[in-house]
Amino acid sequence: MSANSFSSLPLSKPLLKNIAELGFTEMTPVQAESLPPILQNKDVIAQAKTGSGKTVAFGIGVLHKLDVKKFRVQSLVLCPTRELADQVAKELRRLARTIHNIKILTLCGGQPFGPQLGSLRHEAHIIVGTPGRVLKHLIKGSLSLDNLDMLVLDEADRMLDMGFIDDISEIISYAPGNRQTLLFSATYPDEIMGLSESIQNDAISIKSN
């Protein structure tokens, strides 16, 4: 068994079996570096471009931590655009296809508000969304983060470029302080480092190609 093999990770048998069936065998550099600390419940800031395998890295972390019997929002993934949120949700559903009764919900701007309200009334385990729409649901009281275990900021530099920093800060004010926070960014400008320091605890820094 290779040190870079997914089977070297302390994951459940159904999750490992599904990862293998999806054709994932060897971890990419960002997966090999980030997954061990993620699975140890540590905060991680990782430099990772699109196509580096980061979605699978944080997706496995999210699913490993999930208690499917607890019908509350346990993980929130924030993305800069609806297109990326849809891609992330699709990948999470592929990774989670052996987990019964799991509910992954996307909350994005540009989509009708009413159906999202209806879906939220029935609760969800994982929310993937854009900051503006997630914040709108929090302010309305249709979304609660009281049971949040993991927060993921995907393409954080793009979210900052698009002016979402205030929305992100406000969203975090609704979340418990003792959560795990993962931050993925293609670049590390000063604003990203400042954001990491303000929302993460002793984050493990990973720079991957």
Walkthrough of the structure:
The structure is a single chain. The longest helix is centred in the middle third of the chain and has 14 residues, at 82-95. The protein has helices at residues 13-21, 29-39, 54-65, 82-95, 113-121, 131-140, 156-161, 165-173, 190-199; strands at 44-47, 75-78, 104-107, 126-129, 150-153, 180-185, 204-207. The mean pLDDT is 94. The chain is an alpha/beta fold.
Brief summary:
The protein is an alpha/beta fold and 209 residues long. The chain is built from nine helices and seven strands.
How do the helices and strands line up, and which of them pair or pack?
Blueprint: H1 13-21, H2 29-39, E1 44-47, H3 54-65, E2 75-78, H4 82-95, E3 104-107, H5 113-121, E4 126-129, H6 131-140, E5 150-153, H7 156-161, H8 165-173, E6 180-185, H9 190-199, E7 204-207
Parallel strand pairs: 1-6, 1-7, 2-4, 2-5, 3-4, 5-6
Helix pairs in contact: 2-3, 3-4, 6-8
